[in-house]
Amino acid sequence: MNGLIKYLRHEVKKHTFDYLLLVTVGIFFLVSINIFKGERLLEFIFLLAFASFYIIWGIYHHIIDDSLHLKTVIEYILIAFTIIFLLKIIIFP
Amino acid sequence: MYTNFMEKVKSFFHHLFIPHENNNFRAKSLHPDFLMMYLVFALVLTFIFKTTGVNVLGFATDVTVEKLYQLTNQEREKNNLPPLALNDCLSQAAHKKAEDMFSKNYWAHFSPTGTTPWDFMIDIGCKYEYAGENLAKNFMFSDGVVTAWMNSQSHKENIINKNYSQVGYAIVNGVLNGEETTLVVQLFDKPINSTVAYTESLINPKSVQAEEIVNVNKTKANLSSLPININIIFMIFLLAALVLDFYFAAKFNIIRFGGKNLAHFIFVTFIFVGLVYVFINGSII
User: Chain B contacts of A6, Cβ < 8 Å?
Assistant: First the structure.
């Protein structure tokens, strides 16, 4: 457990701005879908925007971290698109 | 034999969730080939639900007149008020109102042509002294509708209004602003005292129309919860895989190239919170 906390502290300290940005956009995403509750099209647009931001964030973060690799970009894209398609079934059939 | 089988199961889960040399020091469940498999699975599900016509929030919600009526009276009971009687006349007026909203494509108490909710009641023949209306759309569950109404002062005032003695509901599916929508119309009234005979004949908890709506929605209820459950199970699985991989990689000081588990975890968590608390809720006016 100590190893995990140490790693987390190191990672967040090293990339404070990046993680703060991701969390802030996440909060904006939740607030937006809460404001437009029941407006399925808008909810889906907010989901698309958040997922797109997440992919761009991943690329930007790994460029800064000097660890950008095609496999890494694909990982972000696959997770984002899986979530989009799964939620599409619920939000916007 | 049993021990051998358990060893295989243990080895399978170890390979799936714990980073070690055999899975290139990353949980197999987070490898690109597995992530691709999840995407294919999501696409297949989207196709299946589209072709079978199981629309989750649009046409197959678990909102029923029976439950709405029960929850509304529970809220009145908490406020020491007598229960409302389910009224067929009001249910018919509510149904007309919902149909009007779909045909004229509006989401409001008053139609663009100036028709008020009371006009539908008068047209059907409901004679009232006081009346009120609550509207909701795109809710997944009945308790979500009543909770949202109770959290809004104006809607709450209708539900716990001592002047009302009757209630009517309509749950109607249709297309509103290009979206498949489930509308819930709740009408309240206090009938005019002089029409005692009329009132008595209408205060019938087992109104035919209400039962019809309940039955229609009950048959759809089982279908609607499936995609929600699949989403929740998948996200919990993904979060568990990320946490375990993250924990053991930190514990064994494994340095590797790849996406950041912390970032994936933050992203999936926000989506999960959105799914549980927001997407299943609709809007009220």
Answer: 250
Count CB atoms within 10 A of the CB of residue B193: 9
**Do A3 and B251 count as a contact with CB atoms less than 8 A apart?**
yes
Q: What is the largest CA-CA distance in chain B?
A: 85
| Average pLDDT value for residue range B152-158 | 91
A 46-65 → B contacts, CB under 8 A: 47, 50, 54, 57-58, 61
Q: Does A41 touch chain B (CB under 8 A)?
A: yes
3-state secondary structure of A42: helix
Question: Left if phi > 0, otherwise alpha if psi is -120 to 50, otherwise beta: which for A69?
Answer: beta
Q: Which amino acid is at A49?
A: A
Nearest-angstrom CA–CA distance, B181 and B192: 34
Would the CA dihedral through B25, B29, B32, B33 be positive or negative?
positive
Domain count, chain A: 1
pLDDT for B216 equals 40
Residues of the domain holding A73 = 2-90
pLDDT per position as a tens digit, B9-61? 888 888 889 998 888 888 999 999 999 999 999 999 888 887 775 544 445 56
**CB burial readout B57-70, b (16+ within 10 A) else e:** bbbbbbbbbbbbbe
A62: its two tokens: 């790994």
Whether this model's pTM surpasses 0.80: no
Substitution target in A43, A77, A85, A92 with the highest count of B β-carbons within 10 Å is A85
* Residue B72: predicted pLDDT: 94
Summarised one tens digit per residue, pLDDT across range B191-249 is 886 343 333 333 333 333 333 343 344 334 344 567 788 888 999 999 999 999 988 88
- Lowest pLDDT segment from A47-51, B145-149, B175-179: B175-179
Q: Specify the long-range contacts of residues B203-208, CB closer than 8 Å, at least 24 apart.
A: B203/B85, B203/B86, B203/B87, B203/B166, B204/B85, B204/B86, B204/B87, B204/B88, B205/B85, B205/B86, B207/B86, B207/B87, B207/B88, B207/B91, B208/B88
- Of B45, B32, B42, B6, which Cα lies nearest the Cα of B258? B32
